[in-house]
Amino acid sequence: MKIAIVCHPTHGGSGVIASELGMRLAKNGHEIHFVSHERPFRLDPLTLGVHYHRVNVSSYPLFRYPPYALALANQLSRVIQDHDIDIIHAHYAIPHSLAAILARNMNADHGVKVVTTLHGTDITLVGADPSYTDITRWAMEESDRVTGVSDWLAHETHHELGSHLQVETIPNAVDTEAFSASRGCDQLRARFAPEGELLLAHVSNFRPVKRTGDVIRIFAKATAGLSARLLMIGDGPDRAAAESLAKELGVWDRVHWLGIIDDTAPLLASSDLFLLPSENESFGLAALEAMACGLPVIATASGGMPEVIVDGETGFLAPVGDIEALSRGARTLLEAAERRSLFASTGRQRVEDQFRWDPVISQYEELYGQLFSGGS
Ligand code: GMT
């Protein structure tokens, strides 16, 4: 099939999933066209069968807010015409799904279908914002198929937008070769844990939903009196506040602020424990990648995370903001190397059993097929 994929190109789970999906579909013989304002960071441009079309957003003095959605729809329309596209797969509702629907309707004679995959904040933050609720609901109604990355997100979509919407769960997956304990390296440990310290890690975009301050609080509490360091991977609006907090709590000299890193696997695989105390995660791809690298995860029992992390087996889950319980879970694992490695191997096994790409690709291919066999 000829599939156009629309996604956020910047660091974030939805762009990662869209890129991995597209490259794997191309390997299965599909012709894949990525359409975005930048090449997605996880997309290998040399993958055979993958094409990238840049969206140009012209800026005019009259446009206080340059209309990206319209430029995207225009570019999608061109790609439909030039490459005879069968399906537009939009990752993230607004504006991607909407632009896809517009492009489909502009080319009604082509019979293009629109699949929307919801990733979380497109419903919980954007869709829940009254400025976008009605148009998000309409985009879901107008999509030919809608998928969500967890059962929780499907349920939440019904709650926010209406139970009439059909949302099929297709979970996220991880590249189990790229994310594996074998990517760990002595040089990284020597650099970040020179005295053989325990190494904790956190990866996010440091937005309020990630509760970056709680990462620092948990680290400070859980490692009091222990020899441990923390890798803060990523960047975003809450970084400055988290840095101040680290100073206030006296852990500043034990935290490495690494900024945005494309390939996080070597750092994860060189660490001992992963922290993700988010307000909400529809899925928690960062936690899944950490589990694949052999890290137990300390996370909040929020959103779809309980579908990924098994409390007491692959990590510990606790209520949002419960620093005491989250720190207790972390401390338990930091102090017990054997239990930590049991959690690590159980986590890795769970990833291999439940979150490999092959079955997920088959689910998407089946869904695409249904669109052209009267099953939509
Ligand atoms: O978490 C973010 O801020 C990024 C966001 C995105 O759209 O890239 O992540 C969402 O999609 C990921 C991939 O499906 C999920 O693993 C994340 O849990 C989800 N984030 C939230 O729900 C906050």
Quick structural gist:
The chain has 376 residues and is of the alpha/beta class.
Description:
This protein is an alpha/beta fold and 376 residues long. It folds into two domains: 2-173 and 356-373, 3-Layer(aba) Sandwich (Rossmann fold); 181-354, Rossmann fold. Helix content is 44%, strand content 17%. It has a seven-stranded parallel sheet, sandwiched between helices. It has a six-stranded parallel sheet with strand order 10-9-8-11-12-13, sandwiched between helices. Bound molecules: ligand GMT. Ligand GMT binds next to helix 1. Ligand GMT binds at residues 12-15, 17, 92, 119-121, 149, 172, 205, 207, 209, 280-285, 303.
Helix content: 40-55%
Computed CA radius of gyration, to the nearest angstrom: 21 Å
Query: What is the average of the pLDDT values?
Result: 96
How many angstroms does the end-to-end distance come to? Answer: 16 Å
Order of helices and strands: EHEEHEHEHHEHEHEHEHEHEHEHEHHH
Strands, total number: 13
CATH topology label of the largest domain: Rossmann fold
